[in-house]
Amino acid sequence: MNNIFVYCELTEEKTIADVSLELLSKGRRLATELGVKLEAIVIGSDLKRIEDQVFPFGVDVVHVADDNRLFPYTTLPHASLVLHIFHHEKPEIAIFGATSIGRDLAPRIASALRCGLTADCTSLEIGDHFENKTQTEYKNLLYQIRPAFGGNIIATIINPETRPQMATVREGVMKKEVFDPKYKGQVKKVNASAVLRDEDFMVQIIERHMEASKINIKNAQVIIAGGYGVGSRENFQLLYDLADVLGAQVGASRAAVDAGFSEHERQIGQTGVTVRPKLYIACGISGAVQHRAGMDQSAQIISINTDPNAPINHIADYTIIGSITDVIPKMIRYYKAN
Ligand code: FAD
């Protein structure tokens, strides 16, 4: 069996993006399970010792294409380089982030290779774990797991025929974990000039405007999330007050965002961000499957809801039955005093 490849994205600072480190962590586990190697692809410019950033995640081989025309990302040269590598290496599995870059690049690669692609996965597993493990034709396949039909079912998708088995994976759903800080793999330099042609540079970036978002809830350790039950934008201020006391970030359900109670950048769930904080306090949130998809990996969940039967209470570690307008001021007073 051939190896597992992860396409690694770069941040503006030319470090490996968190989403790619998450995918390498998952890739390492899958590679160990299948008894194959984990390979990374890094494409950019001025990539000084970039391998030092990926080896601790258990990367056996990193393919590095370093050329001043390759940063920031543009579709055509990156696609040509990935295809060049794939033609030579024939990966068994290829994983990309479900980011704007991954969503642009992965379908182009899949289409060029005429293979399938499962977008927006929330989990990847090797097939043996599943009930049909006795069906040998499904053994050792990549089970690509993602919500489907508006989040009402969780679909498991397999690709028994074409290779590589390709998936994009949502940011934040895989745990970023160092495999071995001293792990050392091999660096394979890719000669970009020899691969790329003039037509790969048909699209030129003339100007870039960076909009710094002040809101970043993705890595918050404590999140106070408000739903439609919070009732108004004014009531959301209670959540900010509690967040101040706890050093937390404020998140929101889609219904709260749609009602104008909160900004879209704070939306958690299937069509928002995925979070896994140490503590998630759900305030006036019913717990629809599309919301849970973005927060059910939280270490501890507290629900504050007037309805004892709200679905969120079934996954909460603690439930407080009551109105947020009564409960939150009491919590603020308590935490301020302690
Ligand atoms: P509601 O379901 O209206 O629940 C409000 C809750 O507040 C109730 O449980 C109620 O008992 C409680 N309540 C009322 N008053 C009070 C009070 N004073 N104090 C305490 N509790 C009170 N949703 C997301 O959140 N994120 C997504 O990314 C997302 N993506 C979606 C994608 C698709 C394709 C679809 C179809 C839907 C998506 N949704 C998403 C919407 C989702 O289905 C739900 O409609 C939404 O999550 C409901 O938000 P809510 O829990 O805030 O509101």
From TrEMBL:
<feature type="binding site">
    <location>
        <begin position="284"/>
        <end position="291"/>
    </location>
    <ligand>
        <name>FAD</name>
    </ligand>
</feature>
<dbReference type="InterPro" id="IPR014729">
    <property type="entry name" value="Rossmann-like_a/b/a_fold"/>
</dbReference>
<feature type="binding site">
    <location>
        <begin position="267"/>
        <end position="271"/>
    </location>
    <ligand>
        <name>FAD</name>
    </ligand>
</feature>
<dbReference type="InterPro" id="IPR014730">
    <property type="entry name" value="ETF_a/b_N"/>
</dbReference>
<dbReference type="GO" id="GO:0009055">
    <property type="term" value="F:electron transfer activity"/>
</dbReference>
<comment type="similarity">
    <text>Belongs to the ETF alpha-subunit/FixB family.</text>
</comment>
<keyword id="KW-0274">FAD</keyword>
<keyword id="KW-0813">Transport</keyword>
<dbReference type="InterPro" id="IPR001308">
    <property type="entry name" value="ETF_a/FixB"/>
</dbReference>
<dbReference type="GO" id="GO:0050660">
    <property type="term" value="F:flavin adenine dinucleotide binding"/>
</dbReference>
<dbReference type="InterPro" id="IPR029035">
    <property type="entry name" value="DHS-like_NAD/FAD-binding_dom"/>
</dbReference>
<dbReference type="GO" id="GO:0033539">
    <property type="term" value="P:fatty acid beta-oxidation using acyl-CoA dehydrogenase"/>
</dbReference>
<feature type="binding site">
    <location>
        <begin position="253"/>
        <end position="254"/>
    </location>
    <ligand>
        <name>FAD</name>
    </ligand>
</feature>
<keyword id="KW-0249">Electron transport</keyword>
<protein>
    <submittedName>
        <fullName>Electron transfer flavoprotein alpha subunit apoprotein</fullName>
    </submittedName>
</protein>
<dbReference type="InterPro" id="IPR014731">
    <property type="entry name" value="ETF_asu_C"/>
</dbReference>
<dbReference type="Pfam" id="PF01012">
    <property type="entry name" value="ETF"/>
</dbReference>
<keyword id="KW-0285">Flavoprotein</keyword>
<dbReference type="InterPro" id="IPR033947">
    <property type="entry name" value="ETF_alpha_N"/>
</dbReference>
<dbReference type="Pfam" id="PF00766">
    <property type="entry name" value="ETF_alpha"/>
</dbReference>
<feature type="domain" description="Electron transfer flavoprotein alpha/beta-subunit N-terminal">
    <location>
        <begin position="4"/>
        <end position="205"/>
    </location>
</feature>
<feature type="binding site">
    <location>
        <position position="305"/>
    </location>
    <ligand>
        <name>FAD</name>
    </ligand>
</feature>
